[in-house]
Design brief:
Blueprint lengths: L3 H19 L7 E7 L6 H12 L3 E7 L4 H14 L6 E5 L3 H6 L12 H4 L4 H5 L2 E2 L2 E2 L2 E7 L1 E5 H7 L7 H11 L6 E4 L6 H13 L16 H15 L13 H9 L3 E6 L3 H5 L10 E5 L11 E9 L6 H11 L2 H11 L12 H6 L3 H10 L1 E2 L6 H18 L3 H16 L1
Parallel strand pairs: 1-2, 8-9, 11-12
Antiparallel strand pairs: 3-11, 4-5, 6-11, 7-9, 7-10
Helix pairs in contact: 2-14, 9-10, 9-17, 10-17, 17-18
The structure holds alpha-D-glucopyranose.
The site of alpha-D-glucopyranose has 12 residues, from helix 9 and strand 11.
Length: 417
């Protein structure tokens, strides 16, 4: 019997193909399509309106796909495999680029942009647009994980913001009011967010997962410590609800925004949304760079989104026109205020209007500079899929981390064989 995922993908593909067959919505205009998650804050709608007002001959169609990056990657993949130019524009997570480029699904953007112009962007984001020295994308939004806390609650209780992971556990335990308000929420669903949380802890414990050449070694003391740390949040310290194993970024954010968590691990977009006039936690939130173990310095995860042009596109010039517009300083500023997206243009971290609304940007900038990308590997999706299954099982069951990592390692070896 076909899986739900398969049925869902087929349905979406059929919808896309029928919308392709209908052609452009504006007579005489060509339609360029791309997909992202649901349009939080109406940021895309505003940006597309502005673009179309200045380009009567180009119609941009945003497909609001599933919130999960993995689910959207599969849909793009199906679209490429169909051989139809369903998406002219490819709006990609940093982790998809290697596979899409390796498969020949993206055009090189070297003819469109000078190396000098790329220097205006954060270097890690530009590196995340390249595969084997070829440029395949332009960075639109950057990302790195941060820690949010309820400033009001900590201040009332006389706690300073925690300086390390152990302190976080102590403060969370002491301030949580169960079952209504939990100490710490993070992304524990079987999805990419969980892998990001794991990588940070792994790096924080001094470990790594290297996919380039040689043996894949996952079952290390550092990885065991990282996974045990995640399990303990739920099973030992009980500062994270068992339901956290179903949380993606948005469920985590809703929980925190409803006042139901003291600390939250998430991406920086949640800051602007917490400050909106209807937010119950407006003015009550603090934000910190990701916490480390007291004795180790380690990088946070680099996430982020970029635009490429499909190799199947028959309108690369028009697609480039949109990419140029969308990645401009003006568009990135619009995005920042509408949905909290982190710019990729370095100058915006000194923009007075942005700093007024997001004073933590001065601290975020160095964090972005030292953030590490997950492995840029053509088989990253499969690797992450294996990690997600095993890590998630371990979180739910509390199973021995060494046993789980040993099984995951064996599967990784055959995946990458
Ligand atoms: C954010 C990051 C992206 C990451 C995803 C995980 O969107 O920008 O890089 O893969 O979260 O859910």
């Amino acid at each position: 019997m076909p899986s739900m995922k398969f049925l869902f993908r087929s349905l979406l593909l059929a919808l896309l193909l029928s919308s392709c067959a209908r052609g452009p919505a504006n007579t005489g205009a060509i339609t360029l399509r791309f997909m992202d998650a649901p349009d939080i804050g109406g940021a895309w709608a505003q940006l597309i309106d502005r673009f179309e007002a200045a380009h009567a001959d180009i119609h941009i169609e945003l497909i609001e796909g599933p919130a999960s990056t993995n689910a959207r990657e599969e849909i793009y993949t199906e679209a490429f495999l169909s051989g139809e130019p369903i998406f002219d524009l490819v709006y990609m997570d940093i982790i998809w680029l290697a596979q899409f480029a390796h498969s020949g699904w993206l055009r090189s953007l070297i003819p469109y942009i000078e190396e000098d112009a790329l220097e205006e962007f954060l270097p890690g984001d530009v590196a995340g647009c390249k595969y084997q020295d070829e440029l395949y994308a332009v960075p639109m939004r950057s990302d790195t994980s941060v820690l949010y806390y309820r400033k009001d609650l900590l201040e009332e209780a006389g706690f300073p913001p925690p300086a390390g992971l152990h302190e976080l556990v102590t403060v969370a335990k002491s301030l949580q009011v169960l079952p209504f308000q939990w100490g710490y929420v993070f992304q524990g669903a079987q999805d990419e967010g969980l892998v990001c949380n794991f990588f940070e802890l792994l790096w924080g414990m001094g470990g790594d997962l290297n996919l380039d050449g040689g043996e894949i070694v996952l079952n290390t003391p550092e990885a065991v410590e990282a996974l045990r740390w995640q399990q303990n949040l739920i099973h030992l310290h009980k500062i994270s609800p068992p339901g956290v194993t179903k949380y993606h970024e948005e469920e985590t954010r809703h929980m925190f925004h409803e006042g139901r968590a003291v600390f939250m691990h998430n991406w920086p977009y949640a800051w602007i949304l917490a400050q909106k006039p209807d937010s119950p936690v407006r003015g009550k939130v603090g934000i910190l760079p990701l916490l480390q173990r007291a004795d180790k310095e380690s990088p946070p995860v680099l996430g982020g989104w970029r635009f490429g042009i499909s190799a199947l596109s028959e309108h690369p010039e028009e697609a480039w026109e949109f990419i140029r517009f969308a990645t401009s300083a003006e568009s990135q500023k619009l995005f920042h205020f509408a949905n909290g997206a982190i710019p990729t243009r370095r100058a915006l971290f000194e923009d007075p209007e942005i700093l007024l609304e997001s004073p933590h940007y001065s601290a975020l900038y160095p964090a972005l500079l030292k953030a590490h990308a997950r492995p840029m590997h053509p088989k990253y999706a499969q690797v992450s899929g294996v990690l997600q299954r095993h890590l998630h099982r371990a979180l739910v069951s509390g199973e021995d981390p060494q046993k789980v990592l040993k099984a995951a390692e064996a599967e990784l070896l055959s995946t990458l064989d």
